[in-house]
Amino acid sequence: MRLCTYMDGESTKSGIILDDRLCPLHESNIKEVIEKYDVSQLQSIVSDNDNTPIELEDVNLTSPYLDPPKIWGIGLNYREHAKDLGENSPDQEPASFMKPTTTIVAPGSPIILPVQSDRVTGEAELGVIIGKRCKDVSLSQASQVIFGYTTIIDMTAEDILRRNPRFLTRSKSFDTFFSFGPVVVTADEIDDLSAVTVRTILNGVIGAENIVANMTFGPLELVSFHSHVMTLEPGDIISTGTPGALKLSHGDQIGCFVEGVGTLYNPVIDKPEV
Questions:
Q1: Residue 265, beta-bridge partner list
Q2: pLDDT tens per residue, range 241-252
């Protein structure tokens, strides 16, 4: 099942995508849907829904929601990407960090390059969406607390990070440094998560790609690991790492493709002069 949030005048509404049409829901965004329903309940809603479907081409999709309780990012999680950066991929535990919700930019809206950095990179990633409040989840239980998956573009002010690894949070936290959506796909739609391809795309050209099987820590491991650190909540996002980061310049378009999930694009601009 594929869900989205779309603009309805000045407000937002949620819906279920059915081929080229949209089944409207009463909730204003996907997070509210996650908090109220599981997949079987959503399937019943589709079967019983008597609302007139909306043509998908007639709506403007936006961020699935703007208030994830937590955004976790995972660094150097593909071994090949770590080699590209001359780094060692962590093999004992994931190199995780958190991002503020103020980094969120809507799909299709511009990523703004900050004046403090001369080297910002864009990174395509598979995103895991938590569906249930949970703590101390075992690896075998992890799939039961995942609502679904999404496409993510994460940004890094790489020159700031290289000055000092303790600057990681700042390098990741500029406004517009996190795009996700516009579609969230429920977990049951993905038959073999390990075989899913993730691609970073710049100006229509594939710059990096890999499959989930080549992550050091797979999505289920990441869910279990972080649930032992803190309580996970519905709507939490875990951005699972990138197959490759690409330098961004004014006028670029950065994209993420995740097989079975969808594609996400954002234009890139310099920060406007005040």
A1: 255
A2: 999 999 999 999
Helices and strands (H, E) in the chain, number of each type: 6, 18
| In the chain, alpha helices (H) | 30-36, 39-48, 79-84, 158-163, 168-172, 219-227
What is the identity of the amino acid at 35? Answer: E
Fold classification of 71-270 is: Fumarylacetoacetate hydrolase; domain 2 (3.90.850)
3-state class (DSSP) for residue 270: strand
pLDDT surpassing 70 at residue 80: no
* Distance, CA of 107 to CA of 21 (rounded, Å): 19
Report which of 76, 75, 156 is spatially closest to residue 111, judged by C-alpha positions: 156
Judge contact between 61 and 4, C-beta under 8 A.
yes
Cis peptide bond N-terminal to 182, omega within 30: yes
Evaluate if residue 82 carries a pLDDT over 90.
no
pLDDT band (50, 70, 90) for residue 71:
very high
Contact 149, 187 (CB under 8 A): yes
Give the CA dihedral 23, 28, 31, 32, nearest 10 degrees: -90
Average pLDDT of the segment spanning 45-69: 90
Decide: pTM greater than 0.70.
yes
**Can you give the residue ranges of every domain in the chain?**
2-62, 71-270
10 Å CB burial of residue 244 (0-12, 13-18, 19+) is: buried
